[in-house]
Amino acid sequence: MPRPQTIQIFLPASEKELFYCKGSGADGVGEYTTEGFVVLRGSRGRTEKVASIQGTPNERLREQLVNDGVMAAQNGLYVFTRDHLFPSPSTAAMAVMGRSANGWVEWKNSQGRTLDEVKRQSVTVAG
Q: Is the pTM of this model over 0.90?
């Protein structure tokens, strides 16, 4: 019996897939890249932050994004004024949601599949 083989499928740049992070005032749109995760301009994040990130590097990162003009307060939300590259999907999700987050499960495509399902879970085929 042949052993299963694991293969990875890469889409051409013209077929970039967008991912969405929604909940509690957050409405982020972004894309996964080889450099990290890019949250796109116009994405909205909640201004409130939960107690678990207060006094942490995550809180300081959000403050820095506001100070640098990447996020601006508008109508009770933070709005991304330009595309911004984060080192990981989880850091991107935290910036949008104002809380610790596992970006691999918070970011979902238009079919509701998680970033983990789309990008990390390999396709296994008999071969």
A: no
